[in-house]
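pinging the channel bc i need a second pair of eyes. not urgent but kinda urgent?? the chain im working w is below, pasted from the shared doc
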Amino acid sequence: MELWLAKKLGFITEENGLYEMTLKGAFYYHHYEQYYTLAYIDKMWGIMKEEAFPKRIRF
């Protein structure tokens, strides 16, 4: 279902069973990747501000 939706939204193309990300798909992929990466880093920095070398970080 996810591949069907991605094709309908123009995020990927399919040819002979091979899927390829479109420029539109790459744009949205990197946009959301940045959001999650920044959220991860912000949480780590917040924790490490309190303790420089924590034994464990839970997300």
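so Strands lie at 12-15, 18-21. and The mean pLDDT is 93. — does that match what u expected or am i reading it wrong
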